[in-house]
Structure formats: structure tokens, C-alpha cells
Amino acid sequence: MILIAPHLFFFFFFFLLSIPSLSSGANTLSVNQSLSGNQTLISLAETFELGFFKSGESSTYYIGIWYKKVKTRTIVWVANRDTPIANIFSSKLQILNGNLVLLDESNTQIWSTNITPTPTPTTSAVLLDDGNLVLRYDSSSISITPIWQSFDHPTNTFLPGGKFGYNKQKNTKQIITSWKSTEDPATGPFSLEVDQDEKQYVIKWNRSVEYWASGSWNGRIFSSLPEMRLNYIYNFSYVDNENESYFTYSLYNPSYISRLIMDVSGQIQQQTYLESLDQWNLFWTQPRSQCQVYAFCGPFGTCSQTELPFCSCLTAFVPKSLNDWNLSDFSGGCVRRTEFDCGIKEEKPGFIQGYVPVNYLSTFLETETPESEMGESACRRSCLEDCSCDAYSFILKICRLWNSENLNNVSLLFVSDDVNSRTFPVNIKVSSSDLPNSSTKIKTKVLVVGIVSGFCGLVFLCSIGIIFYRRLKRKGSRDNGENFEREFQENGRNVRYLVDPGILSAEDRKGIDVPFIEFKTILSATDYFSLANKLGQGGFGPVYKGILPGLGEVAVKRLASQSGQGLKEFKNEVLLIGKLQHRNLVRLLGYSMKDHEMILLYEYMHNKSLDRFIFDRTLSVCLDWDLRFDVIMGIARGLLYLHQDSRLRIIHRDLKASNVLLDEDMNPKISDFGLAKIVKGQETEDNTTRVVGTYGYMSPEYALDGFFSVKSDVFSFGVVILEIISGKRNTGYYHNQEAFSLISYAWGLWKSKRPLELVDLALVETCNSIEVLRCMIVGLLCIQEDPRDRPTMVNVVLMLGMDIESLPDPKEPAFVSKRSIDRLPSTSSKSEINQLTVTQEEGR
């Protein structure tokens, strides 16, 4: 039992009474109040909360703001990120001399808003519902404009409603900087800031090396950042005037929770919160590839986009901090496994190679290092004989010797996944005992490999024997056993990578229904992937035309190293499409795998994709209304097959005009099943924390909550119908009509009883107005906000052949801007479209 002296107890009691109390749930901190311990400020709508917190296993505390409604505490702003405190009960946040300050247990000022103090009037700090902490004057006679606000001093998060840019009057700019690690809010190495000269945003490493840029603002989007465009969820805008230039964004539905962060990965990420799963969903990220982030793996680290974790150490090196490495903080890089003693001549250290990419070569060469003109062998010998030399490079016939200090500062030593990228070698000195060709290591490795190989071989043979025996027993015939053995020999090791027991049943895993084709055969068929044979580029990667013996013309889809898709999507394609047979689905002819290469071979479609026709002013005239209606019906039949008639119930999840291919007779075929999902039995829905697909075609429940169903495909189909009718993209910008998408534009025309103004001008002479109106109604029914209101594909096919009078009235679609609709004029314009006649013009 701990005894407290009476005079100390009295002093502590008096100290507690002397502190003005803070009302529970208050959103304001006044001049005569302080915040300490577990006290917090809560915004009026209880959206955000401010108080003391600690991160991870740390014993120190910070003042920060977090989401009140997000179950897992997510910090959006930190005041004292680089100066934590030890005791929250003896520290306090209060207003002092007009500033908001944080005092530690010794009454030392740790953090302050740092504005010029004014004797009068008094100030107060208020936490607003948008997450902005503002300091403002209390007097009602003075402007309510904040004299300081946290939005002007972001940490790693940019919230909706904030301004992120450059103040021309003060010559200052906001900078968003990553945390040091996932558990340490200290200032990290990656920052996002504005490049005022180029009117763009850039990401920098160490506030010095720029490795990503958004591209300049072109009036609608940043040229290299198509994701950050005006769409159905976010309203993005860029303002540039004489006082300031800034980027801002808001949500059309303010009830959704979203944030843009500069992540510890060195990537900016737009995220939305899925409340039902208590998960943050990644909406988009840049740079797309983790290995495009400068110095992500630190000195002597290598990056590979095809492995997890992405970072590993060069041969003879180990992580500098294993704890940081486990927290995904790779910035410390790697250190030598064995430090060599230059004074021991018998040791004779050798060299291993790291690589510097050509796009960073100029920065690499600007580092201050001795250089001279000599041959490479002399350069190598010079480094070996110099105790201060840790590495040498021989680039552009110039010898450079590197010591540990300038070599560590370069942080460019990583290996690119792209075999075609140009790199320059840097030769790093290591101890002879850690060299790959060390005789001791070779003997050990041979012994270990021999034991492991023998054991694995025994297990493998036993496994094959068991499988073969069970197969024979189940089939009950020698012939079936021989077929299985032949199938196993043909597909070999590839089946092990392609079959996921969590996706397909044992019956489905009997074998892949398409042949495996040798990679060298594909190289020959495409003339080694020559540019002359390149047909286009998709999310999976480039597509080439090829000619294979026995198959004729084929389309060869090659997984790109920078693709956001990978092995999982590749497996989907191989396992699914081979089992699907329908005239409106593209046919998979074969597949191939070699090292990191993943190849899919499809039937060649002479007219390529639907978007090539409907969105091109010249080619669109080739698609008259009869052809367009046939395309709509063909897509509908293909989806009906996927949802109901195939033995695998499949949700496509990425239906769009570019994924509908046209054969030589203009018959539509749905393609690209990399993102498709199988639902079991009679189930028609599921959810995910990884939302994938194409924005503009995603249903609201999928894009925002990760919930997908067959009705998600119905929504996408509705968007495609409207695109086919109008010849316009859903994600286009309809400034003249004050609509931010094709959906809102079409709904506005429908509400104002001018539906035929949606029709593509190229269809004026061939248009069947009754069929057009019927298709438009069906399209609007498909994009209704509530998935329960949308028809199934069975009903869609039926409705496309029904009388207009029999169709139900569509309800308001998802992602419609009320402002845009209200401003659409209700009178018709004298366009060519309005010269068409229709039996019933009333909106149904």
C-alpha cells in the first residue's frame, strides 16, 4: 500500500480544483480552460474528436484529431508529431497569450500555433465537423475567419473541404508528409507538395528528390492523374487566382467518410471507409507501383513488385532495423552482414552489384564523389586497395569511388522488375565470407539443398502417388487414370500456381480446360512482341496480334510489370473463361507462364472493342441503330448467361464498353474476366475490402461499401446502354449542361421530358425512336440507386422486347447531382434529335 503525505495530497487536490473543468462533449476550448488526461473535444455532429493519444506500443503521447465514428482509431492530424510527451495527466493543452499551446509536465511549451499574440480580444479553439481545428476571436464584432487553422498545417492527411496549395501573398505552401512508420507519427521521408511553376503536385523523398508528378491542371484534371477527376463520388476542383492557388475536393454524399493520405509507402492514397467491415478501402493510389517510389527500400535494399514484402536486402546485407522492417518502414535500408577489416590483407573483400535506374542517373552522378578516367579493371583495383572505398561505379567510362557516407545518401540501390528498363551497375565491397561464390557457403548450400531436395522429392512422389491412387479409385477405370497422368504431365507445375482451393471445388479442379502453350511459341507468333503487332493497352497489360499454327490469328494479352493486376486476376481468367461457352463471351484459347511472364491467348476480334466505335466521331457512323440495338441485346444475353445459365454463377465486376469486343460480323463478346467473382450455389451477392473495377461503371454500394452482387453488373450494363445511345462516356465532363456525368445528364433530360436529346447525332437518320426510348428506360431502371429496385438480367432481356407502356417508371439513379438537374431547362431545343417522332413522350 502506497502512503501519500498529507501536505502532498492537499497540494494535489488543490491543483485539480484550480483547473477549470472542460464540459464533456464540448467542441470549444476557451481561454480559461485546459485539456489534459482523457479529456477530449468533440465536434458538434460527433464526427471528429481531439485529445491525447499514443500510437502502437509507444509509451509517449501526442495531441491529435481522429474520426469519432470510425471504430478503429484513425488519426487525421497531429500537433506535436516530432515532440511527444510522457505524461498526459500533468500535461495540458490551453490558450496562452492568444495562442493554442501544449505544455508538458514541467510546464515547458512543446507545441504552439505560433501566431503574433494580441492583447485583445480573447481567442478560443473550436473543433469543426469537417475535422478542422480553428483558432478564432471570441468577439462577435470581428470576422469569424480563423486566425489559425489545422487545415493550413496538415500532417499526413488531406480532408474533404480543405485547401491544399500555395499562398501567393505570403509565399507559403501546405505540405503533406508521411508518418515515419505505421506506428510512429513523426515526420517521415515522403511529402506531397505543390509545384507552383508547373501548376502540378509532386511527391518528394527527403524534401529534395522528386519522383512523381500529377501533371499540369488542364482545366478538368491533372494530366497524369486521371483518377482525380470530377466523378460521381468526389467533386474535385483547382482554383488559381491572384491571392492563391489550391486544390480542394468534397463528397457529393457527405455521410461517407473519405480521406487522402501521404502513406508510409511513399504513395498518395484516396481511401473510403467501409463501416460494415470497419475497413478502409483503397479508391486509388499513385504511383501505382510500389517500386516506383524513390528509395522505398533504403540503402542497399532491392524492390520487387512481385514479392511480399516488396523490399529485401542485397546479397551480403541484412535489415538495419528488423523491428522497423516488420512495421513496413524500410527507409533505414540494409547494412553489411559482416563488416570487413581493411587492415587484414588476407581477407581480400570482393564486390556484389546493385543497380541505379537510368532516370535517376543524373542525381546519382551529381553526388560528390572522386572521379577519374581509367579502365574498369583499374577502377576495381583502386577501390580494393583503398580502405575508405565502399563501392565503385564505372558509368559512361568514368570511374567513381564511393565511401559509406555518400553511398548511403544516394539511396538508389534497387533492382527494377521491368527487365527492359535501363540500369547502371554499382559495385559494392563486401566481406569475402559473404560473397556468393564463397567455398564455405557453397558447401553448406549444397548440403542443405541436397537434404531439402531429397525430402521434398520424397513428399512430392508420395503426394502424386496418393492423388493418382484416389483418382483411379474414384474413376474406377485404368483409362481415366491414364488421362489424369497425361493431364498432370501437360500442365505440370503451372497447375499448382493456378488452382486456389478457396475458389473452386474439387470437381472444378480436375484440370484447366485450355491448353498450356510454350512461351517460345508465343514469342515466335508475335515476332517477339513487336510494336507492329501491338493492338492496344489495357489494365492487365499490352495486347498483341499473333498467328499460331492450328489456331490462326489470336490476341495475346501480356501481364505488364506495372499492372495493378497480377496472379490472382490471371488465375481468374484461366480457370473461368475456359469453362464458359457462350456466343457473347470471348473465347480463351490458351495460356502460358514463364518466370514473371503471364500470358493469355484469346480468339482474335477483328473490330476490337466497342468503345473504339461509339466514342469516335468518325467510326460512330459505322454503328447504325440496328447494330447498336443488337450489341445491347448481345451484352444482355452474355450477362444473363453469367448470372444464371452457366454452371458457375459469375459476377463480372468490370463490365464497360472497352471490355466488350466486336467480331468481324460486329457481334459483341464480353471479355476481361480478371476481376470476376464466383458466387456459390444460389447466392447472388458478396462483399470485399478490395474494391476493383472502373470508376464510372461501379454501382454505389460496391464503390463505397465494397458490397457487390449480380445487381452491380446490372448497374454497369445500364451505364453501357446510355453510352451506346449517346455516344458519350459516363465519365465525360458535361459543363454546358451542368451535369457531372452522363447519368446525371440523362436523368435531367428524362425529368424535363426531353429524352431523345440524349441520342447520338450519328443516329439521326437510322434511329428507331420507340426502341431508343425503350432502351433508355431500361438503362435508367438498371442504374437506380437501390439495388433491389434494379431488374435482374432475366427481366432486362424481357423488357428490351416489351412495349413502352408496360415498362415501370425509373426512380432517381445513383450519383445524380440535384443542382445539375434543377438547372436543366425544361423547354426543348431545336436540334435534329427533336425532329424525331415518338408515340409516347411522357417519361415512364
Automatic annotation (TrEMBL):
The keyword Transmembrane applies. InterPro entries: Bulb-type_lectin_dom (IPR001480), Bulb-type_lectin_dom_sf (IPR036426), Kinase-like_dom_sf (IPR011009), Pan_app (IPR003609), Prot_kinase_dom (IPR000719), S_locus_glycoprot_dom (IPR000858), Ser-Thr/Tyr_kinase_cat_dom (IPR001245), Ser/Thr_kinase_AS (IPR008271). Residues 825-844 have a biased composition (Polar residues). Residues 529-815 form the Protein kinase domain. One of its GO terms (molecular function) is ATP binding. It is found in: Cell membrane. It is a single-pass type I membrane protein. The chain crosses the membrane at residues 446-469. Residues 818-844 are annotated as: Disordered. Its EC number is 2.7.11.1. PROSITE patterns: BULB_LECTIN (PS50927), PAN (PS50948), PROTEIN_KINASE_DOM (PS50011), PROTEIN_KINASE_ST (PS00108). It comes from the Eukaryota. Residues 342-428 form the Apple domain. One of its GO terms (biological process) is recognition of pollen. Keywords: ATP-binding, Cell membrane, Disulfide bond, Glycoprotein, Kinase, Membrane, Nucleotide-binding, Serine/threonine-protein kinase, Signal, Transferase, Transmembrane, Transmembrane helix. SMART domains: B_lectin, S_TKc. Residues 26-148 form the Bulb-type lectin domain. It is an enzyme of class 2 (transferase). Residues 1-25 form the signal peptide. It catalyses: L-threonyl-[protein] + ATP = O-phospho-L-threonyl-[protein] + ADP + H(+); L-seryl-[protein] + ATP = O-phospho-L-seryl-[protein] + ADP + H(+). GO terms for cellular component: plasma membrane. Belongs to the protein kinase superfamily. Ser/Thr protein kinase family. PANTHER family: RECEPTOR-LIKE SERINE/THREONINE-PROTEIN KINASE SD1-8 (PTHR27002), S-LOCUS GLYCOPROTEIN DOMAIN-CONTAINING PROTEIN-RELATED (PTHR27002:SF973). This is Receptor-like serine/threonine-protein kinase. It comes from Lactuca sativa (Garden lettuce).
